[in-house]
Amino acid sequence: MQWWTESDIPDQSGRTVIITGANSGLGERAAHVLAEAGAEVILACRSVEKAAPVAAAIGPRATVRRLDLADLSSVRAFADSVESVDVLINNAGVMAIPFGRTVDGFEMQFGTNHLGHFALTGLLLDRITDRVVTLSSVLHRLPGMNLDDPNFTERRYGRWRAYGQAKRANLMFGYELARRLEAAGSPLRSIAAHPGYARTHLAVNTRLPLAAVGAAVMNGLFAQTARLGTLPELYAATVPDAPNGAYYGPNVPGELWGFPHRCGSNRASRNLDTARRLWEESEKLTGVVYPLPT
Which has the closest alpha carbon to 138: 118, 109, 167, 159? Predict the structure, then answer.
């Protein structure tokens, strides 16, 4: 059987793609590949200084704009700078970091990974022409989502619990956006993806020295390359007939390695009542209200 690879990406000439967190890891790889396929890529990154060398290496099809997903004023300023975009890839994220809060007071992982992307997508929705791709994780299956206290104001913080909550929120947002787009009769698509266990700096940058050492060892022994890990989001972003509401990840059992295929998710991530509550809470916390029917 012939598996889908980068060589199968259709010509992207004339298309513009925004990739959050494109200064390293999966986002950096995706930016290189999409530019090589002809797309104009906007690297939306918190550090312009770190992203500039990446854009220079990609060439004239790449530009850098500042976007700090942990600061809603930065999200709004970035959105105001965009005239039109074909594909938005919500790729950026932080993983299993010590407790912290965003500029707006949200728990850092929930605020950055989910709320920042929720606000960004809503603010750009009227200027997106094709699709939104949102990155989740196999760890969306971790227990710990609590919409009565999503920002760990009352309950005890656990870095993996918070990460699992954020990644489930990413996936539920992708699903719920797809349903609302369909209900509105919109031609736009919302597609989710996850990289499996990919060798990136995300796990190493946990800000916990011992955990970082352990993650580096595990990356070296078991993780697949960033090149393979990027394939599901590239598939979701470029395949013309990828359906609204789909979720893509690696095809090996357990979804840790392999080539992209359409995958499933746990029952909790498909709960419609929870998805509605998450959406309403996200609108309330960010102040970004989508012009879509419920």
Answer: 167
User: How large is the average pLDDT for residues 122-133?
Assistant: 98
In eight-state DSSP terms, residue 101 is B
Q: Does some domain include residue 46?
A: yes
163-222 pLDDT per residue, tens: 999 999 999 999 999 999 999 999 999 999 999 998 666 544 455 554 444 344 344 435
Q: Is residue 294 assigned to a domain?
A: no
| 2 belongs to a structural domain | no
Q: Which range marks the domain in which residue 44 is found? A: 11-286
Q: Number of folded domains in the chain?
A: 1
Our answer to whether residue 163 is catalytic in this structure is yes
Find the CATH number of the domain harbouring 169.
Answer: 3.40.50.720
pLDDT of residue 223: 63
Q: Per the residue annotation, which of 163, 235, 247, 290 is the catalytic one?
A: 163
CA-derived radius of gyration, the chain: 17
Q: Which of 189-193, 232-236, 290-294 has the lowest mean pLDDT?
A: 290-294
Establish if 139 belongs to a structural domain.
yes
Q: Whose CA is closest to 19, among 94, 80, 86?
A: 86
